[in-house]
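Hi there, hope your week has been kind to you so far. Thanks so much in advance, here it is:
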Amino acid sequence: MNRFPGIKYGLVGGVCLVILSMIGMVEAFNQREIISEVISMGQMLLLAATAFIAYPAAQHAGGGVKGLAASVSAGVIMTAMLALLVLLGHTVNMRQVFINVSPSLFQILTFQQESLWVGIGWMLLFGGVTGLLAGLLVMTPDLLRRVVIAALTTVVLVGTLQDTISPIFSEWGPLADINDLIYEGNGLSIPGALGLFVAVAAAASTWILKGQSVKGRVQSLPPVSRRRLNIAMALLGGFVLLVLPHILGLFLSEVLVIIGLYIMLGLGLNIIIGFSGMLDLGHVAYFAIGSYTVAILTSPELGFFNWNFWQALPVAIAAGAVTGVLICTPVLKMRGDYLAITTLGFGEIIRLFVLSDFLRPWLGGAQGIAQIPKVKLAGFEFAGPQEIYYLILGGCILIGFIAWRLRDSRLGRSWMAVREDEDVAQAMGINLVSTKIKAFAVGAGFSALSGAIFATKLGSVYPHSFNVMISINILCVIIVGGIGSIPGVVVGAAALVGLPELLREFAEYRLLVYGAVLVAMMLLKPEGLWPEVTHKRELHESENDGGEAAAAEPAGNRV
Protein backbone atom coordinates (compact mmCIF):
# COMPACT_ATOMS: atom_id res chain seq x y z
CA MET A 1 0.00 0.00 0.00
CA ASN A 2 2.91 2.39 0.71
CA ARG A 3 4.03 1.90 -2.89
CA PHE A 4 0.65 3.22 -4.07
CA PRO A 5 -0.04 6.37 -2.02
CA GLY A 6 -2.92 7.33 -4.30
CA ILE A 7 -4.88 4.27 -3.19
CA LYS A 8 -4.19 4.81 0.51
CA TYR A 9 -5.04 8.51 0.46
CA GLY A 10 -8.03 7.90 -1.79
CA LEU A 11 -9.58 5.34 0.56
CA VAL A 12 -9.08 7.59 3.61
CA GLY A 13 -10.41 10.62 1.75
CA GLY A 14 -13.35 8.65 0.40
CA VAL A 15 -14.40 7.69 3.90
CA CYS A 16 -14.21 11.38 4.90
CA LEU A 17 -16.38 12.46 1.95
CA VAL A 18 -18.96 9.78 2.67
CA ILE A 19 -19.14 10.87 6.33
CA LEU A 20 -19.49 14.54 5.39
CA SER A 21 -22.36 13.60 3.06
CA MET A 22 -24.13 11.27 5.49
CA ILE A 23 -24.14 13.72 8.41
CA GLY A 24 -25.88 16.33 6.24
CA MET A 25 -22.99 18.78 6.00
CA VAL A 26 -22.85 18.82 2.20
CA GLU A 27 -26.59 19.38 1.85
CA ALA A 28 -26.63 22.11 4.52
CA PHE A 29 -23.70 23.95 2.95
CA ASN A 30 -25.29 23.72 -0.48
CA GLN A 31 -27.80 26.41 0.52
CA ARG A 32 -25.16 29.04 -0.22
CA GLU A 33 -23.28 29.66 -3.43
CA ILE A 34 -19.66 30.69 -3.70
CA ILE A 35 -19.92 31.79 -7.34
CA SER A 36 -23.48 32.36 -8.46
CA GLU A 37 -24.81 29.54 -10.67
CA VAL A 38 -21.30 28.04 -10.92
CA ILE A 39 -20.34 26.37 -7.65
CA SER A 40 -22.18 26.10 -4.34
CA MET A 41 -20.68 25.96 -0.89
CA GLY A 42 -21.52 22.26 -0.63
CA GLN A 43 -19.71 21.51 -3.88
CA MET A 44 -16.80 23.64 -2.71
CA LEU A 45 -16.65 21.55 0.46
CA LEU A 46 -16.31 18.39 -1.65
CA LEU A 47 -13.74 20.02 -3.91
CA ALA A 48 -11.65 21.34 -1.00
CA ALA A 49 -11.73 17.99 0.81
CA THR A 50 -10.72 16.13 -2.37
CA ALA A 51 -7.88 18.55 -3.11
CA PHE A 52 -6.71 18.48 0.52
CA ILE A 53 -6.29 14.68 0.33
CA ALA A 54 -4.94 14.51 -3.23
CA TYR A 55 -2.27 17.15 -2.54
CA PRO A 56 -0.32 15.11 0.08
CA ALA A 57 -0.79 12.00 -2.09
CA ALA A 58 1.18 13.75 -4.85
CA GLN A 59 3.79 14.90 -2.33
CA HIS A 60 4.15 11.39 -0.91
CA ALA A 61 4.69 10.00 -4.42
CA GLY A 62 7.53 12.47 -4.96
CA GLY A 63 5.88 14.81 -7.44
CA GLY A 64 6.35 14.61 -11.19
CA VAL A 65 4.44 12.05 -13.24
CA LYS A 66 4.15 9.70 -10.26
CA GLY A 67 2.74 12.50 -8.18
CA LEU A 68 0.16 13.32 -10.83
CA ALA A 69 -0.82 9.67 -11.07
CA ALA A 70 -1.16 9.44 -7.28
CA SER A 71 -3.25 12.61 -6.96
CA VAL A 72 -5.55 11.70 -9.86
CA SER A 73 -6.06 8.16 -8.57
CA ALA A 74 -6.76 9.52 -5.07
CA GLY A 75 -9.37 11.93 -6.44
CA VAL A 76 -11.06 9.24 -8.55
CA ILE A 77 -11.14 6.74 -5.67
CA MET A 78 -12.65 9.34 -3.34
CA THR A 79 -15.47 10.21 -5.71
CA ALA A 80 -15.92 6.51 -6.58
CA MET A 81 -16.73 5.86 -2.93
CA LEU A 82 -19.29 8.69 -3.11
CA ALA A 83 -20.68 7.03 -6.23
CA LEU A 84 -21.06 3.78 -4.29
CA LEU A 85 -23.04 5.73 -1.66
CA VAL A 86 -25.33 7.06 -4.39
CA LEU A 87 -25.83 3.60 -5.91
CA LEU A 88 -26.53 2.10 -2.49
CA GLY A 89 -29.00 4.88 -1.74
CA HIS A 90 -30.90 4.14 -4.95
CA THR A 91 -31.02 0.44 -4.03
CA VAL A 92 -31.72 0.55 -0.28
CA ASN A 93 -33.76 3.04 1.74
CA MET A 94 -30.94 4.38 3.91
CA ARG A 95 -33.04 7.17 5.43
CA GLN A 96 -34.42 4.78 8.01
CA VAL A 97 -30.96 4.87 9.63
CA PHE A 98 -29.29 7.94 8.12
CA ILE A 99 -31.90 10.67 7.80
CA ASN A 100 -29.58 13.00 5.89
CA VAL A 101 -29.06 10.53 3.03
CA SER A 102 -31.86 12.03 0.95
CA PRO A 103 -32.69 12.35 -2.76
CA SER A 104 -31.64 16.01 -2.63
CA LEU A 105 -28.17 14.90 -1.45
CA PHE A 106 -27.92 12.51 -4.41
CA GLN A 107 -28.91 15.35 -6.74
CA ILE A 108 -26.09 17.48 -5.33
CA LEU A 109 -23.53 14.68 -5.63
CA THR A 110 -24.52 13.84 -9.22
CA PHE A 111 -24.52 17.52 -10.30
CA GLN A 112 -28.31 17.60 -10.86
CA GLN A 113 -28.09 15.09 -13.73
CA GLU A 114 -31.30 13.26 -14.62
CA SER A 115 -29.45 10.08 -15.60
CA LEU A 116 -27.82 8.31 -12.65
CA TRP A 117 -24.92 6.94 -14.69
CA VAL A 118 -24.24 10.28 -16.35
CA GLY A 119 -24.15 11.84 -12.90
CA ILE A 120 -21.72 9.19 -11.64
CA GLY A 121 -19.55 9.85 -14.69
CA TRP A 122 -19.48 13.54 -13.81
CA MET A 123 -18.54 12.62 -10.23
CA LEU A 124 -15.57 10.53 -11.36
CA LEU A 125 -14.50 13.27 -13.78
CA PHE A 126 -14.80 15.83 -10.95
CA GLY A 127 -12.54 13.72 -8.73
CA GLY A 128 -9.98 13.13 -11.47
CA VAL A 129 -9.77 16.79 -12.48
CA THR A 130 -9.53 17.94 -8.85
CA GLY A 131 -6.76 15.42 -8.20
CA LEU A 132 -4.97 16.54 -11.38
CA LEU A 133 -5.10 20.19 -10.28
CA ALA A 134 -3.80 19.26 -6.82
CA GLY A 135 -0.92 17.31 -8.41
CA LEU A 136 -0.08 20.22 -10.72
CA LEU A 137 -0.09 22.54 -7.70
CA VAL A 138 2.59 20.36 -6.09
CA MET A 139 4.73 20.71 -9.22
CA THR A 140 4.41 24.50 -9.47
CA PRO A 141 7.13 26.79 -8.08
CA ASP A 142 6.72 27.85 -4.46
CA LEU A 143 5.90 31.48 -5.32
CA LEU A 144 3.13 30.58 -7.76
CA ARG A 145 1.71 27.96 -5.38
CA ARG A 146 1.48 30.42 -2.47
CA VAL A 147 -0.12 33.07 -4.69
CA VAL A 148 -2.74 30.67 -6.09
CA ILE A 149 -3.64 29.32 -2.64
CA ALA A 150 -3.98 32.85 -1.21
CA ALA A 151 -6.16 34.02 -4.10
CA LEU A 152 -8.42 30.95 -4.06
CA THR A 153 -8.84 31.15 -0.28
CA THR A 154 -9.83 34.81 -0.52
CA VAL A 155 -12.40 34.12 -3.26
CA VAL A 156 -13.97 31.32 -1.20
CA LEU A 157 -14.10 33.45 1.98
CA VAL A 158 -15.57 36.50 0.23
CA GLY A 159 -18.19 34.32 -1.46
CA THR A 160 -19.03 32.51 1.78
CA LEU A 161 -19.41 35.73 3.76
CA GLN A 162 -21.67 37.51 1.27
CA ASP A 163 -24.45 38.02 3.83
CA THR A 164 -21.94 39.82 6.07
CA ILE A 165 -19.90 41.81 3.56
CA SER A 166 -22.62 42.90 1.14
CA PRO A 167 -24.76 44.92 3.62
CA ILE A 168 -21.67 46.83 4.82
CA PHE A 169 -20.46 47.66 1.31
CA SER A 170 -23.92 48.67 0.10
CA GLU A 171 -24.14 51.47 2.71
CA TRP A 172 -20.83 53.17 1.88
CA GLY A 173 -21.13 55.17 -1.32
CA PRO A 174 -18.35 54.09 -3.74
CA LEU A 175 -18.20 50.68 -2.10
CA ALA A 176 -21.80 50.07 -3.20
CA ASP A 177 -20.65 50.02 -6.84
CA ILE A 178 -17.90 47.53 -5.94
CA ASN A 179 -20.50 45.44 -4.13
CA ASP A 180 -22.73 45.35 -7.22
CA LEU A 181 -19.73 44.36 -9.34
CA ILE A 182 -18.52 41.58 -7.04
CA TYR A 183 -21.81 40.00 -5.99
CA GLU A 184 -24.68 38.72 -8.08
CA GLY A 185 -27.69 36.96 -6.65
CA ASN A 186 -26.68 34.37 -4.06
CA GLY A 187 -22.91 34.51 -4.57
CA LEU A 188 -20.01 36.10 -6.41
CA SER A 189 -20.47 37.08 -10.02
CA ILE A 190 -18.09 35.45 -12.48
CA PRO A 191 -16.36 38.79 -13.36
CA GLY A 192 -16.24 39.64 -9.65
CA ALA A 193 -14.63 36.31 -8.75
CA LEU A 194 -12.06 36.63 -11.56
CA GLY A 195 -11.28 40.24 -10.67
CA LEU A 196 -10.91 39.38 -6.99
CA PHE A 197 -8.65 36.44 -7.82
CA VAL A 198 -6.38 38.60 -10.01
CA ALA A 199 -6.25 41.44 -7.48
CA VAL A 200 -5.35 39.17 -4.56
CA ALA A 201 -2.84 37.24 -6.66
CA ALA A 202 -1.14 40.49 -7.70
CA ALA A 203 -1.06 41.77 -4.12
CA ALA A 204 0.22 38.46 -2.73
CA SER A 205 2.97 38.11 -5.35
CA THR A 206 4.06 41.72 -4.81
CA TRP A 207 4.28 41.19 -1.07
CA ILE A 208 6.18 37.91 -1.42
CA LEU A 209 8.65 39.46 -3.84
CA LYS A 210 9.02 42.89 -2.25
CA GLY A 211 8.00 42.29 1.37
CA GLN A 212 11.46 41.47 2.67
CA SER A 213 13.01 44.48 0.97
CA VAL A 214 10.31 46.75 2.42
CA LYS A 215 10.96 45.32 5.89
CA GLY A 216 14.68 45.84 5.36
CA ARG A 217 14.19 49.47 4.39
CA VAL A 218 12.04 50.06 7.47
CA GLN A 219 14.66 48.42 9.68
CA SER A 220 17.39 50.55 8.13
CA LEU A 221 15.59 53.81 8.92
CA PRO A 222 17.13 56.03 11.60
CA PRO A 223 15.67 55.42 15.10
CA VAL A 224 13.77 58.72 15.08
CA SER A 225 12.13 58.02 11.71
CA ARG A 226 11.29 54.47 12.71
CA ARG A 227 9.71 55.68 15.94
CA ARG A 228 7.61 58.21 14.02
CA LEU A 229 6.50 55.50 11.60
CA ASN A 230 5.53 53.22 14.49
CA ILE A 231 3.57 56.02 16.13
CA ALA A 232 1.79 56.83 12.86
CA MET A 233 0.87 53.17 12.32
CA ALA A 234 -0.33 52.88 15.92
CA LEU A 235 -2.50 56.00 15.55
CA LEU A 236 -3.95 54.72 12.28
CA GLY A 237 -4.67 51.31 13.83
CA GLY A 238 -6.22 52.97 16.90
CA PHE A 239 -8.45 55.15 14.72
CA VAL A 240 -9.66 52.09 12.76
CA LEU A 241 -10.41 50.20 15.98
CA LEU A 242 -12.35 53.16 17.38
CA VAL A 243 -14.61 53.61 14.35
CA LEU A 244 -14.98 49.89 13.59
CA PRO A 245 -18.30 49.24 15.44
CA HIS A 246 -19.94 52.21 13.70
CA ILE A 247 -18.86 50.88 10.31
CA LEU A 248 -19.76 47.25 10.89
CA GLY A 249 -23.13 47.68 12.58
CA LEU A 250 -24.86 45.90 15.45
CA PHE A 251 -24.41 42.23 14.53
CA LEU A 252 -20.73 42.39 13.63
CA SER A 253 -20.06 44.47 16.74
CA GLU A 254 -21.53 41.60 18.76
CA VAL A 255 -19.19 39.20 16.92
CA LEU A 256 -16.23 41.47 17.76
CA VAL A 257 -17.28 41.46 21.42
CA ILE A 258 -17.29 37.65 21.50
CA ILE A 259 -13.91 37.56 19.76
CA GLY A 260 -12.57 40.06 22.31
CA LEU A 261 -13.71 37.91 25.23
CA TYR A 262 -11.87 34.92 23.77
CA ILE A 263 -8.80 37.05 23.12
CA MET A 264 -8.63 37.92 26.83
CA LEU A 265 -9.21 34.29 27.80
CA GLY A 266 -6.63 33.15 25.27
CA LEU A 267 -4.02 35.63 26.52
CA GLY A 268 -4.57 34.30 30.04
CA LEU A 269 -4.19 30.67 28.99
CA ASN A 270 -1.22 31.62 26.81
CA ILE A 271 0.64 32.68 29.96
CA ILE A 272 0.11 29.24 31.50
CA ILE A 273 0.57 27.04 28.41
CA GLY A 274 2.45 29.19 25.90
CA PHE A 275 4.92 30.87 28.25
CA SER A 276 5.19 28.30 31.06
CA GLY A 277 4.41 25.04 29.25
CA MET A 278 1.79 23.80 31.75
CA LEU A 279 -1.26 22.21 30.12
CA ASP A 280 -4.33 23.64 31.87
CA LEU A 281 -7.74 22.30 30.76
CA GLY A 282 -9.70 23.91 33.59
CA HIS A 283 -9.25 27.51 32.51
CA VAL A 284 -13.00 28.09 32.41
CA ALA A 285 -12.95 28.01 36.23
CA TYR A 286 -11.25 31.43 36.41
CA PHE A 287 -13.69 32.79 33.85
CA ALA A 288 -16.55 31.62 36.09
CA ILE A 289 -14.94 33.04 39.23
CA GLY A 290 -14.69 36.49 37.64
CA SER A 291 -18.29 36.38 36.44
CA TYR A 292 -19.77 35.16 39.72
CA THR A 293 -17.73 37.58 41.83
CA VAL A 294 -19.05 40.56 39.88
CA ALA A 295 -22.57 39.11 39.98
CA ILE A 296 -22.51 38.62 43.76
CA LEU A 297 -21.07 42.09 44.43
CA THR A 298 -23.28 44.08 42.02
CA SER A 299 -26.62 42.29 41.59
CA PRO A 300 -29.53 43.67 43.63
CA GLU A 301 -31.24 40.29 43.26
CA LEU A 302 -29.03 38.89 46.02
CA GLY A 303 -28.91 42.15 47.95
CA PHE A 304 -25.56 41.53 49.62
CA PHE A 305 -23.41 44.46 48.50
CA ASN A 306 -24.88 46.41 45.52
CA TRP A 307 -21.46 47.68 44.43
CA ASN A 308 -20.82 49.13 40.99
CA PHE A 309 -18.67 47.37 38.39
CA TRP A 310 -15.51 49.37 39.02
CA GLN A 311 -15.63 48.55 42.73
CA ALA A 312 -16.19 44.86 42.06
CA LEU A 313 -13.61 44.50 39.26
CA PRO A 314 -10.43 44.46 41.42
CA VAL A 315 -12.06 41.93 43.75
CA ALA A 316 -13.01 39.71 40.78
CA ILE A 317 -9.46 39.79 39.37
CA ALA A 318 -7.99 39.09 42.82
CA ALA A 319 -10.46 36.23 43.35
CA GLY A 320 -9.45 34.72 40.00
CA ALA A 321 -5.74 35.03 40.84
CA VAL A 322 -6.22 33.46 44.28
CA THR A 323 -8.20 30.61 42.71
CA GLY A 324 -5.35 30.07 40.26
CA VAL A 325 -2.90 29.83 43.14
CA LEU A 326 -5.14 27.40 45.05
CA ILE A 327 -5.57 25.17 41.99
CA CYS A 328 -1.88 25.31 41.10
CA THR A 329 -0.51 24.50 44.56
CA PRO A 330 -1.59 20.82 44.77
CA VAL A 331 -0.43 20.07 41.21
CA LEU A 332 3.03 21.65 41.24
CA LYS A 333 4.78 18.31 40.80
CA MET A 334 2.56 17.17 37.92
CA ARG A 335 3.43 17.48 34.27
CA GLY A 336 1.84 16.84 30.88
CA ASP A 337 -1.29 14.70 30.68
CA TYR A 338 -1.56 14.27 34.46
CA LEU A 339 -1.65 18.05 34.95
CA ALA A 340 -4.21 18.42 32.16
CA ILE A 341 -6.57 15.81 33.66
CA THR A 342 -6.25 17.29 37.14
CA THR A 343 -6.98 20.86 36.05
CA LEU A 344 -9.89 19.57 33.95
CA GLY A 345 -11.30 18.06 37.14
CA PHE A 346 -10.87 21.32 39.04
CA GLY A 347 -12.75 23.19 36.32
CA GLU A 348 -15.69 20.81 36.61
CA ILE A 349 -15.56 21.03 40.42
CA ILE A 350 -16.09 24.80 40.23
CA ARG A 351 -19.15 24.36 38.00
CA LEU A 352 -20.66 21.68 40.25
CA PHE A 353 -19.82 23.83 43.26
CA VAL A 354 -21.95 26.64 41.82
CA LEU A 355 -24.79 24.22 41.04
CA SER A 356 -24.97 22.86 44.59
CA ASP A 357 -28.19 23.45 46.57
CA PHE A 358 -26.14 24.18 49.69
CA LEU A 359 -24.75 27.40 48.15
CA ARG A 360 -27.91 28.36 46.30
CA PRO A 361 -28.74 31.33 48.60
CA TRP A 362 -25.35 32.85 47.78
CA LEU A 363 -24.70 31.67 44.20
CA GLY A 364 -28.18 31.18 42.79
CA GLY A 365 -27.80 27.47 42.00
CA ALA A 366 -29.10 26.32 38.63
CA GLN A 367 -31.20 29.52 38.34
CA GLY A 368 -28.06 31.66 38.28
CA ILE A 369 -27.87 35.33 39.21
CA ALA A 370 -29.73 38.01 37.25
CA GLN A 371 -30.14 41.81 37.33
CA ILE A 372 -26.41 42.48 36.99
CA PRO A 373 -26.14 46.21 36.17
CA LYS A 374 -24.41 47.52 33.07
CA VAL A 375 -21.04 49.19 33.31
CA LYS A 376 -21.11 53.00 33.62
CA LEU A 377 -18.21 55.40 33.26
CA ALA A 378 -18.56 59.19 33.62
CA GLY A 379 -22.28 58.95 32.81
CA PHE A 380 -21.75 56.75 29.74
CA GLU A 381 -23.41 53.34 29.92
CA PHE A 382 -21.89 50.34 28.12
CA ALA A 383 -25.27 48.86 27.19
CA GLY A 384 -25.29 47.43 23.65
CA PRO A 385 -22.62 45.59 21.64
CA GLN A 386 -21.36 48.81 20.04
CA GLU A 387 -20.69 50.28 23.49
CA ILE A 388 -19.42 47.11 25.19
CA TYR A 389 -16.95 46.80 22.31
CA TYR A 390 -14.92 49.68 23.74
CA LEU A 391 -14.84 48.06 27.18
CA ILE A 392 -13.64 44.82 25.60
CA LEU A 393 -11.10 46.71 23.49
CA GLY A 394 -9.69 48.39 26.60
CA GLY A 395 -9.43 45.02 28.38
CA CYS A 396 -7.67 43.40 25.40
CA ILE A 397 -5.16 46.26 25.10
CA LEU A 398 -4.44 46.21 28.84
CA ILE A 399 -3.97 42.43 29.01
CA GLY A 400 -1.99 42.36 25.76
CA PHE A 401 0.35 45.10 27.00
CA ILE A 402 0.93 43.33 30.33
CA ALA A 403 1.54 39.99 28.57
CA TRP A 404 3.96 41.65 26.14
CA ARG A 405 5.93 43.28 28.96
CA LEU A 406 5.95 40.06 31.00
CA ARG A 407 7.19 38.01 28.04
CA ASP A 408 10.49 39.90 27.86
CA SER A 409 10.89 40.37 31.60
CA ARG A 410 12.99 38.27 33.96
CA LEU A 411 9.84 36.43 35.05
CA GLY A 412 8.89 35.74 31.43
CA ARG A 413 12.31 34.28 30.67
CA SER A 414 11.95 32.10 33.78
CA TRP A 415 8.59 30.85 32.49
CA MET A 416 10.12 29.96 29.15
CA ALA A 417 13.03 28.19 30.81
CA VAL A 418 10.53 26.08 32.77
CA ARG A 419 8.63 25.39 29.55
CA GLU A 420 11.73 24.09 27.80
CA ASP A 421 13.09 21.92 30.64
CA GLU A 422 12.07 22.08 34.30
CA ASP A 423 15.12 20.19 35.55
CA VAL A 424 17.58 22.43 33.72
CA ALA A 425 15.67 25.54 34.84
CA GLN A 426 15.87 24.41 38.47
CA ALA A 427 19.58 23.65 38.09
CA MET A 428 20.07 27.23 36.85
CA GLY A 429 18.57 28.57 40.07
CA ILE A 430 14.96 29.21 39.03
CA ASN A 431 12.44 28.64 41.80
CA LEU A 432 9.93 26.31 40.15
CA VAL A 433 7.27 26.71 42.85
CA SER A 434 7.04 30.50 42.74
CA THR A 435 7.44 30.61 38.93
CA LYS A 436 4.57 28.20 38.31
CA ILE A 437 2.33 29.85 40.91
CA LYS A 438 2.89 33.28 39.36
CA ALA A 439 2.01 31.91 35.92
CA PHE A 440 -1.29 30.47 37.18
CA ALA A 441 -2.08 33.62 39.16
CA VAL A 442 -1.48 35.98 36.23
CA GLY A 443 -3.31 33.80 33.70
CA ALA A 444 -6.25 33.31 36.06
CA GLY A 445 -6.44 37.05 36.75
CA PHE A 446 -6.63 37.81 33.03
CA SER A 447 -9.45 35.31 32.56
CA ALA A 448 -11.30 36.64 35.60
CA LEU A 449 -11.27 40.09 33.99
CA SER A 450 -12.87 38.57 30.90
CA GLY A 451 -15.46 36.85 33.08
CA ALA A 452 -16.28 40.11 34.86
CA ILE A 453 -17.03 41.87 31.56
CA PHE A 454 -18.97 38.82 30.34
CA ALA A 455 -21.29 39.02 33.38
CA THR A 456 -22.15 42.68 32.78
CA LYS A 457 -22.61 42.06 29.06
CA LEU A 458 -25.29 39.41 29.62
CA GLY A 459 -26.76 40.93 32.76
CA SER A 460 -26.93 37.45 34.26
CA VAL A 461 -24.76 34.39 34.88
CA TYR A 462 -25.70 30.71 34.81
CA PRO A 463 -23.62 27.59 35.56
CA HIS A 464 -24.20 26.09 32.11
CA SER A 465 -22.33 29.05 30.59
CA PHE A 466 -19.09 27.67 32.05
CA ASN A 467 -18.82 24.11 30.78
CA VAL A 468 -15.64 22.34 29.78
CA MET A 469 -16.08 23.20 26.10
CA ILE A 470 -15.09 26.79 26.91
CA SER A 471 -11.68 25.51 28.05
CA ILE A 472 -11.35 23.37 24.92
CA ASN A 473 -12.24 26.32 22.69
CA ILE A 474 -9.66 28.56 24.36
CA LEU A 475 -7.01 25.87 23.93
CA CYS A 476 -7.93 25.54 20.25
CA VAL A 477 -7.59 29.31 19.84
CA ILE A 478 -3.99 29.41 21.06
CA ILE A 479 -3.02 26.26 19.13
CA VAL A 480 -4.37 27.61 15.85
CA GLY A 481 -2.94 31.07 16.45
CA GLY A 482 0.43 29.81 17.65
CA ILE A 483 1.32 28.66 21.17
CA GLY A 484 3.27 31.35 23.00
CA SER A 485 2.45 34.05 20.43
CA ILE A 486 0.51 37.12 21.60
CA PRO A 487 -0.62 38.21 18.09
CA GLY A 488 -1.38 34.56 17.40
CA VAL A 489 -4.09 34.62 20.08
CA VAL A 490 -5.83 37.46 18.23
CA VAL A 491 -5.59 35.67 14.88
CA GLY A 492 -6.71 32.35 16.38
CA ALA A 493 -9.73 33.94 18.06
CA ALA A 494 -10.75 35.67 14.83
CA ALA A 495 -10.42 32.41 12.87
CA LEU A 496 -11.97 29.94 15.31
CA VAL A 497 -14.52 32.16 17.08
CA GLY A 498 -15.35 34.91 14.60
CA LEU A 499 -15.90 32.79 11.49
CA PRO A 500 -18.33 30.32 13.13
CA GLU A 501 -20.29 33.26 14.53
CA LEU A 502 -20.69 34.59 11.00
CA LEU A 503 -21.94 31.18 9.83
CA ARG A 504 -24.49 30.56 12.57
CA GLU A 505 -26.75 28.39 10.41
CA PHE A 506 -23.98 25.78 10.38
CA ALA A 507 -23.38 25.94 14.15
CA GLU A 508 -24.18 22.24 14.62
CA TYR A 509 -21.03 21.35 12.66
CA ARG A 510 -18.77 23.69 14.67
CA LEU A 511 -16.94 20.92 16.57
CA LEU A 512 -16.40 18.95 13.38
CA VAL A 513 -14.91 22.04 11.74
CA TYR A 514 -12.72 22.62 14.81
CA GLY A 515 -11.36 19.10 14.53
CA ALA A 516 -10.75 19.42 10.79
CA VAL A 517 -9.01 22.76 11.24
CA LEU A 518 -6.75 21.38 13.98
CA VAL A 519 -5.81 18.37 11.85
CA ALA A 520 -5.09 20.66 8.91
CA MET A 521 -3.01 22.93 11.13
CA MET A 522 -0.90 20.06 12.41
CA LEU A 523 -0.25 18.87 8.85
CA LEU A 524 0.26 22.18 7.03
CA LYS A 525 1.31 24.76 9.61
CA PRO A 526 2.06 23.08 12.95
CA GLU A 527 3.55 26.26 14.40
CA GLY A 528 0.24 28.16 14.05
CA LEU A 529 -1.05 31.01 11.91
CA TRP A 530 1.14 33.61 13.65
CA PRO A 531 3.78 31.57 15.46
CA GLU A 532 6.25 32.57 18.11
CA VAL A 533 9.74 32.90 16.64
CA THR A 534 11.20 30.19 18.89
CA HIS A 535 8.53 27.62 18.04
CA LYS A 536 8.76 28.38 14.34
CA ARG A 537 12.53 27.93 14.39
CA GLU A 538 12.28 24.65 16.31
CA LEU A 539 9.62 23.14 14.03
CA HIS A 540 11.51 24.07 10.86
CA GLU A 541 14.96 23.32 12.21
CA SER A 542 15.34 20.19 10.09
CA GLU A 543 14.39 22.13 6.95
CA ASN A 544 16.91 24.86 7.75
CA ASP A 545 19.60 22.29 8.49
CA GLY A 546 18.86 20.56 5.19
CA GLY A 547 19.07 23.85 3.32
CA GLU A 548 22.36 24.75 4.98
CA ALA A 549 23.80 21.31 4.25
CA ALA A 550 22.80 21.59 0.61
CA ALA A 551 24.38 25.03 0.40
CA ALA A 552 27.60 23.78 2.02
CA GLU A 553 27.90 20.72 -0.27
CA PRO A 554 30.53 21.19 -3.01
CA ALA A 555 29.04 21.79 -6.42
CA GLY A 556 30.88 18.84 -7.87
CA ASN A 557 29.21 16.45 -5.43
CA ARG A 558 25.67 17.49 -6.32
CA VAL A 559 23.69 15.39 -8.73
Notes: The CA atoms of residues 168 and 248 lie 6 Å apart.
